[in-house]
Amino acid sequence: MLTKTASPTTITLWNGREIPRLGMGCWAIGGPFFAGDTPLGWGEVDDNESVEAIDRAIALGIRFFDTASNYGAGHSEEVLGRAIGNRDDIIVATKFGFATDPETKQAIGAFADEAFIRRSVETSLRRLKRERLDLLQFHLNDFPLEQSDAVFETLEALRAEGKIDAFGWSTDFPDRAARHAGRAGFVSVQHTMNVFEPVPEMIAVVEQKGLISINRGPLAMGLLTGKFTAGKAVGAKDVRGAALDWMVYFKDGRMAPEFAARLDVVRDLLTSGGRTLTQGALAWLWARSPRTFPIPGFRTVAQVEENAGALEKGPLSVDVMAEIDAALARV
């Protein structure tokens, strides 16, 4: 599934390919979509700019892009398909489980039956212009454990049919990650992880089972870029302004005070070695475990360049990691 390599900033995937230990998350480039009046995207986007940013990421060595069938009601997959198509040197990961209407940009519901999964796979293949999905991930975070067996049996069948190369679960629950780790083709768990949320229980499962830890939210939805101040609010179509139970980093569209306090105590440590704050946050993840694989989001070439620049500097030192732990324990 995953092999630790000599370089701390490369990773060997389930297919034997060694790539830089950094992917790009494609939620934001999907543009706006909604559940009623509640925004689920990150605001308006320029597709030409998105394609330019993807091209720049590839030029800088990035070989892994993560999206989902519902991001932008399918628009994220379409943009990736336009930019990458069926290139065999690029790994494209997508997800299924949430249905959306591409015309109204509205969320319809969550589904996990075999017929839905198969329709979703065919739709993703068409949008992405791929002959096979490199990695297909179950997107329903808290789906009942006992009912998940049928889901992954379907994924095993799709793999046997050549529709997908590998599969995983996008979930923050360690027991869900562990349940299917023994299946042939189950190679990854995508979960929230960053300096503020080190999730030791999930990392223990990942390391014990030999999975890839795909880290969503590696920059805490933008807090760890340093671009937000206490008074700065997000736009009207930005999910970070929505009153959602899981939206912990932002309250009423502004940086949550408790996270602002945590950021203050780690800022100088993360920017050690000439790193930007963003690069330090990625370096923290690489130092945390040899199996972590962050996928920061992007919308611009500048964001891609800053993210990719972290690879040159590598993981944080053991001493700095210890100092960060101590600083956060005091907040």
Automatic annotation (TrEMBL):
Q: Which GO terms describe its molecular function?
A: oxidoreductase activity
Q: Which domain of life is it from?
A: Bacteria
Identify the GO cellular component terms for this protein: cytosol
Domain annotation NADP-dependent oxidoreductase: ranges: 22-328
**Signal sequence, renumbered to the chain:** none
Q: Which PANTHER family match?
A: NAD(P)-LINKED OXIDOREDUCTASE SUPERFAMILY PROTEIN, NADH-SPECIFIC METHYLGLYOXAL REDUCTASE-RELATED
Q: What is this protein called?
A: Aldo/keto reductase
User: Which organism is this protein's natural source?
Assistant: Rhizobium lentis
